[in-house]
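So, is this right?
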Amino acid sequence: MIKLHNLHKSYPIGKESLHVLKGLDLHIKEGEFVSIMGSSGSGKSTLLNIVGLLDTHDSGDYILNGQRIENLNEKKAAILRNKFLGFVFQSFNLINYKTALENVSLPLYYQGIGRKERQEIALQYLDKVGLKDRANHLPSELSGGEKQRVAIARALVTNPKVVLADEPTGALDSTTSHAVMELLKGINREGMTVFVITHEEDIAAETDRIVRLKDGVIISDERVIKKATV
């Protein structure tokens, strides 16, 4: 599903350049639930931006769903994002003056789906995350956990191949964080690939595989051993 080989990325800083990703090799298969960990400056956000087609790599190979990603203009990148990827952010990124239903239905607007059908599909996904009864509420009328569930419904509404979650529990308390992770686990069990950026060990432990970055390189890539429940 996601193949990265010898991936490099640098950013200019004045006359110098900052080498952020230094030859990354990473293969995420369809249906995996993977977390990317690393301290600030490790390169995890840059990695997410490249995988999410929000930024470009300098060299190396990136293959998404069998398609080599290179020389994309913004229009082509947007089409691929809308087709293959769903995003969940720490800050929710909801539009404040639109209701939960309108926020969730927005990606369908960009796919050219009519208003009535958009709303019907969006309502189904709000129901999926347990928020059908909050459909007509504005973000300001929702709790942090509810906002994140709306964001997850919005990420899922186009039925993407991969959900990219950037610190999805960073703004939430521990109980709500667990509920959000349970939701992501459910999505993964249905066959969707889930890719989580986090700095929280307990959140990473709820995924199936933890990839650790340090100074732009992968220092470990391990399967999570789940404790048996009695």
About this structure: The chain has one domain: 29-56+74-223. The mean pLDDT is 90. Helices lie at 44-51, 74-84, 100-110, 115-128, 144-156, 174-189, 201-204.
